[in-house]
């Protein structure tokens, strides 16, 4: 079997397995489901495979997320692993394209929310500096905020990984200990404040719309009641 045929078989087998996941809905209809994908494009969208970092792992971002019962799409981003031989600027350029492509496809093709469920930069990378990681976090957070602010599908991101002091056995190079990384912590805190403010703004807008609808209903009811009343004695 050729490598291409083997990959197609793997994708089909993976998809068959995923198709059983929505059975969870029969137990808990409010349980949100996702496929846990990194975001690599596959055979269902061959024109998009050029966005991949040269990695073929048998998953298919479009096809796997179109399975009935999948509620939102997920995305990972590790340019320092995927294109480790590239310099920092090339990795940031890849990151920008990777995010733009998936945000667009989640909106236009999948029509699903998109959550960036893993991203990070390891201090074990050759030539690492905290400014490189800060640049990565800032780039990702700007994309997420802009999508959320403009009513897009992407409104959240989870970096890998947050540790508390004393959890040294879990350190893998990607860990964030808030007390040890003041610049990165500041970027994270700022993003949290921005999204929290945006969430409150949208909540107020929804409440205003609800109030308008309620007022319109009351006016309609009043008009119907008064129209039905006889005029004069």
From TrEMBL:
Coiled-coil region(s): none
InterPro entries: GH, Glyco_hydro_5, MAN-like
Catalytic activity: Random hydrolysis of (1->4)-beta-D-mannosidic linkages in mannans, galactomannans and glucomannans
Keyword terms, alphabetized: Glycosidase, Hydrolase
SUPFAM superfamilies cross-referenced by the UniProt entry: (Trans)glycosidases
Entry's Gene Ontology molecular function annotations: mannan endo-1,4-beta-mannosidase activity
Class of the enzyme per the UniProt entry, highest EC level: hydrolase
EC number per UniProt: 3.2.1.78
Sequence ranges assigned to domain Glycoside hydrolase family in this UniProt record: 24-161
Family of this protein: Belongs to the glycosyl hydrolase 5 (cellulase A) family.
Protein's name in the database: mannan endo-1,4-beta-mannosidase
Native organism: Iris pallida (Sweet iris)
